[in-house]
Amino acid sequence: MSSTTPAPARGTKKLPIAKAINESMRRAMENDPKVLVMGEDVGKLGGVFRVTDGLQKDFGEERVIDTPLAESGIIGTAIGLALRGYRPVAEIQFDGFVFPAYDQIVTQLAKMHARALGKIKLPVVIRIPYAGGIGAVEHHSESPEALFAHVAGLKCVSPSNASDAYWMLQQAIESDDPVIFFEPKRRYWEKGEVDTGAIPAPLHTARVARQGTDLTLAAYGPMVKVCQEAAAAAAEEGNSLEVVDIRSISPIDFDTLQRSVEKTGRLVVVHEAPVFLGSGSEIAARITERCFYHLEAPVLRVGGFHAPYPPARLEDEYLPNLDRVLDAVDRALAY
């Protein structure tokens, strides 16, 4: 956190991820009057997932702004506000709604700092509830993170638990660079301990969520829990799996991944997005380069299929699950 942020009273709370994000925005708005929240239905309704519930009531309509249903307008306005010294936190209601704003994000937001030779900064956070698991139709369950991670000038992160949701969002808001903050919507209601007085890890570092010796499972956002469940199941069969929560999709903390793979000799990367050209592809290539003489098996990837997101009744077949992760683990351990 920046040196200008007042230190909060130390205390631990058990919060669902949605509430942790709400309290994170609340604290950021209390600490800095230039922080604004904007998006479709974020004010009076409190957001479709109630993540912004109560913020407009407490901070007013000039700081928590209900926007028109126009994603390009939301991001364009956020860029203008950032140019005037504000720190807007823009919500895209669902992952699949972001594409009307894609032009604004990749040609303006991501490029302005370089275009101005460093003289202009755009501290914009774009919150995107993403991925599946809620039984919704297409455009409400996509995982588009690789499309943004590929764009120079954008940072992309995704918390997997309440503590990271609380701290990573504040760090994103304090960053002078634009940050895409992917929120795993299927995990919104899962609770975890949040120490509001802790010193958080740097925003773009990975975290070893479970120690192991035989194979590394790497994931971010909603798939971290699946990997932890897989590690627990594998332990019953005598296999020790290490789980690395990647947390930051761009930039990626390859050093933490490398240390883990050098110890275990095997890596399986898991994400909900399609395997084809997904974030796991870059991780597999980079770790193969870095750890070639430590690897006992090829790096394997588990993800969604290269197909449009299916109807709700087929969702469980499309999304990576415990069995698909354990199948990849078995294949890697068989080498």
UniProtKB/TrEMBL annotation:
Cofactor field: thiamine diphosphate
InterPro entries, sorted: THDP-binding (IPR029061), Transketo_C/PFOR_II (IPR009014), Transketolase-like_Pyr-bd (IPR005475), Transketolase_C (IPR033248)
Keyword Phosphoprotein belongs to the record: no
Keywords: Oxidoreductase
EC number: 1.2.4.4
The keyword Transferase is assigned to this record: no
CDD domains linked to this entry: TPP_PYR_E1-PDHc-beta_like
Residue ranges of domain Transketolase-like pyrimidine-binding in the record: 15-190
PANTHER family for the chain: 2-OXOISOVALERATE DEHYDROGENASE SUBUNIT BETA, MITOCHONDRIAL, 2-OXOISOVALERATE DEHYDROGENASE SUBUNIT BETA-RELATED
Protein name in UniProt: 3-methyl-2-oxobutanoate dehydrogenase (2-methylpropanoyl-transferring)
